Amino acid sequence: MPFCALVGGRIFCMHGGLSPDLLNWDQLHISRPVDPPNRCLHTDLLWADPEPGVNGWAENTRGVSFVFGENVVHDFCARMDVDLIARGHQVVQDGYEFFADRKLVTIFSASSYCGEFDNNGAVMVVNRQLECAFEVLRSSRKMIKICSGRRKGQKR
């Protein structure tokens, strides 16, 4: 799987977030597999997080990469000529959550994450006109029965 993707030339997608080292698209020709060191562009694409109230860049409390503010998102979108940054990596209550005047969206698909959260999950659907819609996966506390693969009456 790639570290990131540019959908329709307008939506920049990654697992984590932005990097202060990302200055142009040519930097994203990343050969795989790679074991990125702690402080590099690859690590930021995997683990950086947006943070309300932060101006610029700050250390991430996760102990890896950075957190970044709304101004970073606006600057990045203008400099790289994209409309939206789509990312995962953080539990959000409704399955998706906007940041920086809807220039960044966090999409988290695992509802009831680890059985510890009461969050919904979501999937972003992008049509040919690059219009985005969200399918929300409602949280459920129902127990799921996992079958062994044998049907009733079947012999081993």
Q: Care to describe what's here?
A:
The strands form 3 sheets. Strands 1-2-6-8-7 form a 5-stranded mixed beta sheet. The protein has a 3-stranded mixed beta sheet with strand order 3-5-4. The protein has helices spanning about 40-45, 70-80, and strands spanning about 5, 10-15, 50, 55-60, 65-70, 85, 95-100, 105, 120-125, 130-135. With about 160 residues, it is α/β, with parallel strands linked by helices.
Structural class: alpha/beta
Shape: globular
The arrangement of helices and strands along the chain is: EEHEEEHEEEEE
Q: Mind telling me the C-alpha Rg? A: 18 Å
Number of helices: 2
Distance between the termini: 38 Å
What is the share of helical residues? 10-25%
Low-confidence blocks of residues: none
Annotation, overall tally of beta strands: 10
* Content of β-strand: 25-35%
Tell me the major beta sheet.
5 strands, mixed
Mean pLDDT value: 89
* Major sheet: arrangement of strands: 1-2-6-8-7
